[in-house]
Amino acid sequence: MHPEVFRTDFFGLLSQPLILHAYGLAIAVGFMSAMLLAKRQANREGEDGDIVVDMAFWLLLWGLVGARVIFILTQMDRYLADPTQILYFWRGGLVFYGGFIGAAICLIYYTRRHKLPFFKFADLFVPFLAMAHAFGRLGCLCAGCCFGKPTEMPWGIVFPIGSMPHQAHQEAGHVLMEQLPLAVHPTQLYEAGAELLVFFFLLSLRPKKRFHGQILLVWLSVYPVIRSVIELYRGDKIRGVYFMGLSTSQYISIAVACSAALIYFYLRKKGDKIESL
């Protein structure tokens, strides 16, 4: 766990140190890589790569807003007590589904405004979204958030004293303040690895797709399954209230997967008629 890449006050010139957080760096690297690859793919498909770059920055902005808003809603009491914490997104506290919803709304608005085919651009972005998400989960590992449940498996990882797992285990009475937390499932790595596999899978589907929107809907069908399974191994309890044994993200996953399946079969029947969407 390395939440900070470096910090400096420039030899005392700054009253507050300048800190480069690993979480923010991972998001930035994932975003830039995804944007450049999407631009290249757009040029291959006869679209304007510069439009993709402009679109990508708006998607990032509204994705971050959506991810932060959903997290804040699940932790309203905490942020009402200290509203300044709302701005510290680099410490963790982003809900991926919220980010996807925010980015999706932005993409719908952008494509409608500029009279571009929504589903075509959605298919263009989605594989690279999966790749960027993998980078984001590596950032979670560095920040110590989104950690797993305690495990005795040999690949379990032990976070340092003061980390989020340590605080959670201390509150639960598993360890004392001066003790290391228990080994936990590296759920961040589970999801990062799964997202990379999905990334390559979606790229392999691109030459075979039959209609615009197919790749988007395949991802919307596959990712909820991955997320629901990984949720079973998550040990952090701050992302939503559990109901009937399922987390908030699991309920969202079920709704997304079912909706994607219905839309998939609908668009498949429409075929070439959706070119204008």
Characterize the structure shown:
By secondary structure, the protein is mainly α. It is 60% helix and 3% strand. It contains nine helices and two strands. The chain has a two-stranded antiparallel sheet with strand order 1-2. Helix 4 (96-113) runs antiparallel to helix 5 (118-143) and helix 5 (118-143) runs antiparallel to helix 7.
Task: Please give the structural blueprint.
Blueprint: E1 4-8, E2 18-21, H1 22-44, H2 49-74, H3 76-81, H4 96-113, H5 118-143, H6 164-171, H7 187-205, H8 214-231, H9 248-270
Antiparallel strand pairs: 1-2
Helix pairs in contact: 1-2, 1-5, 2-4, 4-5, 5-7, 5-8, 7-8, 8-9
Shape: globular
> Strand order, biggest sheet?
1-2
SSE arrangement, N to C: EEHHHHHHHHH
- Point out poorly predicted stretches: 272-277
Task: Specify the biggest β-sheet.
Answer: 2 strands, antiparallel
Structure classification: mainly alpha
Tally of helical segments: 9
Number of strands: 2
Which whole number gives the mean pLDDT?
85
Please give the alpha-carbon distance between the first and last residues.
44 Å
Q: Output the radius of gyration.
A: 20 Å
Strand content: under 5%
